[in-house]
Amino acid sequence: MKINNFNQMKILIGTLCLIIALPAISQVNNEEKEKSKNMHQPKYCLFYDNHTMPAIPDVGKNFDVEAFTDRIKDCGVDYLTFHARCNLGMAYYDTKIGIKHPSLKYDLFGQLAEACQRKGIALTAYLNGGISSAEGLQNRDWTTLAFDGREYREPRFTPYVRTMCYNSPYRDHLIEMVEEIATNYPVSGFFIDCLQVFYCVCPICVKEMKERGIDYNNKEEVGKFSEFSALRLAEDIYKAATAINSGLLIYHNNPGYEEQFDFSTYFEVECLPAGAWGYEYLPVLSHYIRTLGDMPVLNMTGRFYDWGDFGGLRPEAAIKSELLYGLANGMRPNVGGHFHPRGDLESAVLDRIEKIYKELQTMEPWYDNAKNITEIAIVFPRKVGAIRGDRKLKSAVRILSELYQQFDVVTTFSDWSKYKVLVIPDDIPFDDEVARRVKAHIAEGKAVISSGSSGLDPEQKKFVLEKEWGVKYIGENSFDPAYFTVSKTFNAGLPDMPLSQYSTGIDLEPLPGTKVEANLIKPYFNRHWDGEYAFYYTPPNKVTEKPALTVNGNVAHFSHRIFSGYADKASVELKRVFSNVLDSYLPNPVFKSDNLPSFARAFVTEQPGRRMVHLLSYVPEMRGNTQMIEEPVKLNDVKISLRIDGKAPKKVYITPSMKPLRYKVENGYINVTVPECNGYSLIVFEN
Ligand SMILES: [Zn+2]
Fold first, then answer.
1. CA 214 / ligand 1 centre spacing (Å)
2. pLDDT tens for each residue of 65-86
3. CA 165–ligand 1 middle distance (angstroms)
């Protein structure tokens, strides 16, 4: 894999996290979790990514701590993450053990901490856990020895040129710096960045791997050991910091959320959509992370296009749309930026943030502790690397979003009992736990829609719940390309012609009683080269007996990997046939709309005594190499319907104007027409 920049590296290393087969990290007891209840609850946040070259000659020279803290207070910011020690290894406070930036003449972080405390701004200290260049230069035995024996990463033009070994003396040094900061400054938390998988075969790591019987010549095993070592360090940082102050907000960036659950007190989702993350990342993470519990979750975007981009300021609509997306999904806004190392007050940046935050804050009463109402789960019991990067998962999230469905992405970490429909995309094998949960779900008369090889045992021999699925697994399907035709039951809105699958699939044999609702169509030939011709043009020939879609009671199964197909071609036909099956199982979803376009998004949240519908209408456009949102897309006369669920409305209005909306109750729904949605509308249903 070619890694071009810092952010691709961050994501790729995240996806390399592997299943850990090492002793479980010890559980932190509940008492400590209880104590953390007095911690700050972040609302409107700023995050500074201040990595400052040692050669900068005037760090902090123009920094006016009063002007800066007054200005961010004016923006409505209550929570600030600021560097105590950056990825260059430079400290910005008076440290006895670290390397203070050579041109910084005073205790910048200390002054900031004092001013923040005085002005009621919670300050979290940033330390980079995985990268500390100056400290690595001074102590070469603190850095990783990569699997191929190199100390430097190629190509070298990356902040990751040298990374830190989590088991070297650096480990204790980092913990001591955390203790030094927690002891000497009134901080509200710690953000430990870049605790990523760095394959290290230094003598210290190899010694421990030998003791644990880990094959240090096996890259996968070394990767697992690195993940284990990063998590062990994260847990020890948590213990050291909370021993000094039990009310700290602590998050470790990059390790899995579930893996660090016992030694974090809040979560962040880092996503610069104009950078390597793209616009498909936040939707997946937002639907997943809320299933992990009630910890505060920050939605960190950036004022610029990418990290290290000192001169970038994205349009208001872009930043606002991402923050609104997060707020509609229970995540608090956090805007990332770079602070000018000299301390220049960047008024243009803060003006933009202030304008956005002031507007969002007019709707704060309806965001505060609101919970999403969800009734579908995408079952994806895999590690965080897959959750962050899997294209089929992104595709499933996209399809359900385009259908305005209210759903979560779940692993076995959370309870599934509230969901009416489980969607199991493309290639989710069933272990005992997944099979047990799915079986219990079906036994309650609830529905499952799966596709491809989902539902097979890990050896891919047979369906684990063969009786419930109502089909036998025969093997991989050989049609290339595969076409299909759909029965009358599920062909609403589909053209009457052979349709393409755009993916691979499996052959199924229906058991007695199972309905075949779509059939595969064989092409005249498979795509191939016969020595004379490239068989590129391979039209559909005959409809076969092979099922493309089976329905056995509450279980529907697509033979082909329709979510992969949608990821490749965004085939509206594939989405439509899925939607027709979903409608049969969920005829009365909590939210419906007659005329909302598929690019818009709708979310339903709830607080005591009221429900809210959030409509978003922002469309990222591909411009050159970057996806961009410059303006919202205005919608008029949007007809929406919210299921009553026994909560007859007393009034319906749009916030923040409080303008009442006329509504009509019909067939179990409250029907409302929203006159105009200029990017975002928040409609409140008081009951
Ligand atoms: Zn090492």
1. 14
2. 999 999 999 999 999 999 999 9
3. 4
Strand pairing category for 189-193 and 249-252? parallel
Residue 1, in any domain of the structure? no
* CA 144 to ligand 1 center in whole angstroms: 5
If you measure from the C-alpha of residue 130 to the centroid of ligand 1, how many angstroms do you get, rounded to a whole number? 12
Give ipTM to 2 decimals: 1.00
By the CB criterion, residues less than 5 angstroms from ion ligand 1 are 165, 167, 200, 202, 205
Looking at the structure, do residues 510 and 625 belong to the same domain, yes or no? no
Domain boundary among 562, 585, 608: 585
Instruction: Give the Å distance between the CA of 458 and the centre of ligand 1.
Output: 33
Is there a contact between 486 and 499 (Cβ–Cβ < 8 Å)? yes
User: How far apart are the CA of 243 and the centre of ligand 1, in A?
Assistant: 27
Tokens representing residue 180 in the block: 């030094």
What is the 195 CA–ligand 1 centroid distance (Å)?
13
Name 356's bridge partners: none
Both tokens of 285, joined, read 């993470």
Among candidate residues 543, 563, 585, the one where a domain is terminated:
585
For residue 245, the cross-strand partners are: none
List phi, psi (to 5°) of 641.
Answer: -135, 130
Instruction: Give the distance (Å) from ligand 1 centre to CA of residue 131.
Output: 13
Sole residue written with tokens 């909306």? 661
For residue 233, report the distance from its CA to the centre of ligand 1, in Å: 13
**Residues listed for the chain:** 687
Structural domain that includes position 681 = 591-686
First-to-final CA distance of the chain: 54
Domains held by the chain: number: 2
pLDDT tens digits, 4-62:
444 455 444 444 433 333 444 444 445 545 545 679 999 999 999 999 999 999 999 99
